[in-house]
Specification:
Elements (H helix, E strand, L loop, with lengths): L1 E3 L4 E6 L3 E7 L3 E7 L4 E7 L8 H6 L5 H14 L8 E6 L12 H15 L4 E6 L5 E6 L5 E5 L2 E4 L1
Parallel strand pairs: 1-3, 6-7
Antiparallel strand pairs: 2-5, 3-8, 4-5, 4-6, 8-9, 9-10
Length: 157
């Protein structure tokens, strides 16, 4: 089954599922996969930290990198994924309006992601981040295959 993940959203999939998210500019697209359990998840987070708007974070924790990351892990662990087997891959975190953006949300999203990954003793296996391009993610849970569509071309991550 194909699950489309919108902005500020999260999907957890099982073997046979495909998780897709579109138009990652400054947003973070984070894939987490347990290849043994054949469980995976995709987060499309818009902003770095939930303390920026605690009311909004309570309504939708997936909008933020920090609270969305924890929701992603909780969802995977609830279905049997194990931390030591997790493979993490990131996409997005760019500057679609150019490198001189005042708030530089993409860079901040990436920095928070790295801090959280390190704090949780995890590692990032692959990434396609930064720049001014928009990315679309296609993640096949069974195989762990992650394909990015960037400007009309496809690359595997």
């Amino acid at each position: 089954m194909i699950h489309t993940v919108g902005v500020g959203d999260l999907a957890i999939g099982l073997a046979g599922d495909v998780l897709v998210t579109h138009a990652l500019g400054s947003c973070l697209g984070l894939v987490a996969h347990d290849p043994i359990a054949k469980i995976g998840g995709l987060l499309h987070a818009m902003l770095p930290v939930s303390r920026l708007n605690e009311k909004r974070a309570a309504e939708n924790p997936h909008m933020f990198v920090d609270s969305g990351f924890m929701s992603l892990l909780d969802g995977l662990f609830a279905l049997g994924a194990q931390k030591q087997r997790l493979i993490l891959k990131a996409a997005g975190c760019g500057s679609p309006l150019g490198e001189n953006m005042v708030f530089d949300v993409g860079r901040r999203n990436y920095e928070i992601l790295i801090k959280i990954i390190e704090k949780n003793s995890l590692g990032l296996t692959a990434e396609s981040v930064g720049g001014s391009v928009s990315r679309t993610v296609h993640f096949e849970v069974s195989s762990g295959r992650l394909a990015l569509r960037i400007g009309g071309r496809e690359e595997l991550l």
